[in-house]
Design goal:
This protein is of the alpha+beta class. Among the domains are: 47-53 and 257-340, Efflux pump adaptor protein, beta barrel domain (Elongation Factor Tu (Ef-tu), domain 3), CATH 2.40.30.170; 58-89 and 222-253, no CATH class; 102-216. The protein has 3 helices and 22 strands.
């Protein structure tokens, strides 16, 4: 009987232990712990940015070149082919609003008609005046001959009559001489008036010819074969139908060379010191997530600019894409990871495992046997995902990525010294 009792008690105890273990495991699963090991290896310092693809080289499609001469300061785009259209050299790209240049052509045609009339009038007037002057010279010449005859016939007259005849002949000669001089001046004046009328007429003709030629340039054609990409304003907005081009920047569109692409991007001023020319870049495409491209930094702006709707200052970068791919198009969004440096043989943990107390103490929750330690750590370089540990952890230590329960009031296990006393070389 005692043996049966002992067996029954043993069975009950085993069942009770199984129940307790099951409840414990069930509780553990409800409060699952997310852990990670401290890693040792090569640590990459990175700067990540979002950019936009553009052609490294492109041909600008320009509007009319003589807008300033015509005193036309702004012209609207009335029609333009769809962005991305491939055009041949000499093919149609856009039509600009011709209303202003049309008004100027009409006015110049009216002005030309007036100058033609003035030219004709000047020729007629000068011809009549010179004919009258020539007739007067002929009459004065006849008057000299007449006065000479009177003088020759007065040789038997009294001396007074002879003297009078001599004076009249001299007056006639002088009048004729003055008339000849006046005729020369009158002729020069007539030539100048006609020349002025001719010059004005030719000027109006040339201006009309220029304006008509300018009007033809309002039909914009491709200077080279390529894909049409719209011009963008300083806000990055596409300038399509209804947009205006100015005299100082008459760019209608661009024809990019798609064989060499760049990613144009901006970085915050806090990261500018980490970026250098020729640094390696890993490039991803939002449109093609499976594509992985490479490149390098080829241009860094010397002057920052204000980011729209923000107080942050940013610097423009250009990243050259090494690969040539027919699927790459201007305007595609890129994710750029700039490799700003690498550290050999260092410890690092995910940034999610870090916590801070005040402004100066950083710590992690480290697993220590069956317990947990709130361990201070000294930090080194960091990137968007991980941070270097200078002191406080060892390789293969295990830290929590989530906050363990009941540890909020635990004290931080402090380290001796300070982060500034430690150095980590690449």
């Amino acid at each position: 009987m005692n043996k049966k009792v002992i067996i029954s008690i043993s069975i009950v105890a085993i069942l009770l232990m199984a129940f307790v273990i099951q409840k414990f495991n069930s509780k553990g699963s409800d409060n699952s712990e997310v852990l990670t090991e401290v890693k040792r290896g090569v640590f990459r310092m990175e700067v990540t940015t979002t950019g936009e693809l553009d052609a490294k080289n492109s041909v600008q499609v320009l509007g009319p070149s003589g807008l300033r001469r015509a005193q036309i300061w702004q012209v609207k785009i009335e029609d333009i082919v769809e962005e991305g259209t491939v055009v041949e050299k000499g093919g149609y790209i856009a039509r600009l609003d011709q209303s202003e240049v049309g008004d100027k052509v009409q006015k110049e045609e009216t002005d030309l008609q007036q100058t033609l009339s003035q030219y004709t009038q000047a020729r007629l007037d000068t011809a009549l005046e010179l004919r009258k002057a020539r007739d007067e010279l002929i009459n004065l010449k006849y008057d000299i001959e007449e006065k000479g005859i009177i003088l020759s016939q007065s040789q038997f007259e009294p001396p007074a009559e002879i003297k009078k005849a001599e004076i009249n002949l001299e007056k006639a000669k002088r009048t004729y001489s003055q008339a000849v001089g006046n005729y020369k001046l009158q002729k020069e004046k007539a030539i100048a008036e006609v020349d002025e009328a001719v010059a004005k007429m030719m000027d109006d003709q040339n201006q009309l010819k220029f304006l008509k030629g300018l009007a033809e340039e309002f039909i914009v054609k491709a200077p080279e074969s390529g894909m049409v990409i719209y011009r963008r304003n300083w806000r990055g907005q596409k300038q399509g139908v209804g947009a205006a081009i100015s005299t100082w920047e008459p760019i209608v569109a661009k024809l990019p060379d798609l064989s060499k692409m760049v990613s144009k991007t901006y970085i915050n001023e806090v990261d500018i010191n980490a970026v250098k020319l020729d640094q390696r870049v890993e490039i991803g495409l939002d449109a093609f997530p499976e594509k992985k491209l490479t490149g390098k930094v080829i241009e860094i702006a010397n002057v920052g600019e204000q980011k729209p709707n923000s107080d942050a200052k940013v610097f423009q970068l250009q990243i050259e894409v090494h690969e040539s791919d027919t699927t790459l198009r201007p305007g595609m969004t890129t994710s750029n990871t700039i490799i700003s440096g690498e550290l050999e043989d260092v410890l690092f943990v995910p940034v999610e495992s870090l916590h801070s107390q005040g402004d100066s103490i950083s710590y992690v929750y480290k697993k220590a046997g069956l317990g947990i330690v709130k361990q201070e750590v000294f930090l080194g370089q960091s990137n968007s995902d991980e941070v270097v540990i200078l002191k406080g952890l060892d390789e293969d230590d295990v830290v929590y990525l989530s906050d363990p329960e009941g540890m909020e009031d635990e004290k931080v296990k402090r380290l001796e010294g300070s982060p500034e006393q430690l150095t980590v070389s690449n």
